[in-house]
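pasting for ref. prot 1 ->
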Amino acid sequence: MTLSLRPLDPLQDAELLHSWITHPKAAFWMMQDAKLEDVERAYMDVAADEHHHALLGLRDGVPAFLMEKYDPVHRELVGLYEPQPGDVGMHFLVPATDTPVHGFTRAVITAVMDELFADPRTRRVVVEPDVTNKAVHALNEAVGFVPEREIQKPEKKALLSFCTRQQYLAARGVAI
């Protein structure tokens, strides 16, 4: 299995994304009632935003997950924590499937973290999942994230967590 990433095309990929983010299992994405036009508009906004980027994850060349990275100095977490130089925010979505592959979601978060840390400027990855999303908390912990505290965002109560490059490599069993 080969995982790769490419820039998201908001118009070309909108129908696929719409099917992913409106699925009941994607409730934490908070776009359950979105129409196709809403998805197009949301990702056109992301494409035009220098501080927010969306990438489509491919499994053996076939679209299989979504990754977003953002600058927490300018997006998502403004005023909710004290950002440090080299902080990068991240979201990822693995769509619901009738044929789950054991270990796939863990492979996805690993590919996402590899992508983020491929940039030498990235010193720490920041996430803010919903406090009730226990499955993603476990995945985050498995790749080295350490929860700091709960924060109140406009749309949810979130668990602010951080993962440094060193924590990620240690979680992967890579000698530092």
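and prot 2 ->
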Amino acid sequence: MSASLPYVLILYYSRHGATRAMAERLAAGVESVRGVEARLRTVPPVSPTCEAVDPEIPEEGAIYASLDDLRHCAGLAIGSPTRFGNMAAPLKHFLDGTSELWLGGALIDRPATAFTSTSSLHGGQEATLLTMLVPLLHHGMVYAGLPYSETELMATTGGGTPYGASHLAGKRSDRPLDDEERSLAHAQGRRLARLALALAAMREEGS
């Protein structure tokens, strides 16, 4: 990764791999835009057992996010499986710890988006995406969904919403992303990257 290029942070929690697969498609969309890079990060699980401690580096996949990953990003995508119409506890736990960034206004005027995966077709995808955007708005971020110029929104029989990309993982959480879901996740990453560059230029002009 070049130290000179701005990056879009793709921050996710994935239990069975579906949300991780979506994150990788968003990353490909980000990196299809010249002048910006994708940075994939995850969060550790939370446990009701106080003694449970995860290793500092996951055995596979992206490394764990730090506040600095968030502080210096040009844009942000957050992804989570749905938990009763809301994000999973590990991602919320990380976001709950970002008060110092909120107090300093570190993320104001940076673009953000969200993505999710559910095991059932009507499993709370839209509710999850809408609740995920709330902390982003508190941070002063500019939320970007998926416009209907992405024609897959009208054709999908799996996931895909104007509030953000989504995926139908199936009752065993083993259904791979279909063509429409892959295309929409890629488009969401591409749009976020373009907005990240445009809003960065706007912030520089106003400084």
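The two ends are 27 Å apart (CA to CA).
Helices lie at 18-30, 67-71, 89-96, 99-104, 125-138, 152-155, 179-206.
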